[in-house]
User: What shape does this take?
Amino acid sequence: MDNDKDLEIEVLRDALDHIRRTALGSRTQSRRLQWIASRADSALNDNNDWKDLDLPKSSAGAIQKLRARVKQLETMVDTMRRNGAKIPIGDLSQFVPVEALLNDACQPIDSEGGHCD
Assistant: This one.
């Protein structure tokens, strides 16, 4: 029976170590990943260092704010389209119709008002 427990503990330790290494090895670091790595490391080393790091709050509120802002900007663009608005580009001495930018949104515009190749 002890052998089964030892094997289970080893498997769990290996899983925690893998979680820690994966979180630390991420190409982009975030507070959440640092917290995950710290929590796994603390469990492996039997300490409470992870408690010193604050777990980031859920981003649900930020996502709602971004969605509201996107809707607001979409409304502004629609209004600009209807009014034939022009916006400055490059050194701000030239103006391009909003419609032209929206039709070719995937193509950048150079400072002379033409599309870059």
About this structure: The chain is about 55% helix and 5% strand. Residues 2-24 form the longest helix (23 residues). The longest strand covers residues 86-89.
